[in-house]
Amino acid sequence: MLSGRGRKTSAEKATLLFGALRRYRLALE
To answer: What residue segments make up the domains of the chain, in order of their start?
Structure first.
């Protein structure tokens, strides 16, 4: 349970980070 929960959080965090990075890159350009 804990493992699955942590895994889900990690995936969500990665997605959010990726989106933020992409946005930042676009803003720079």
So the answer is: 1-29
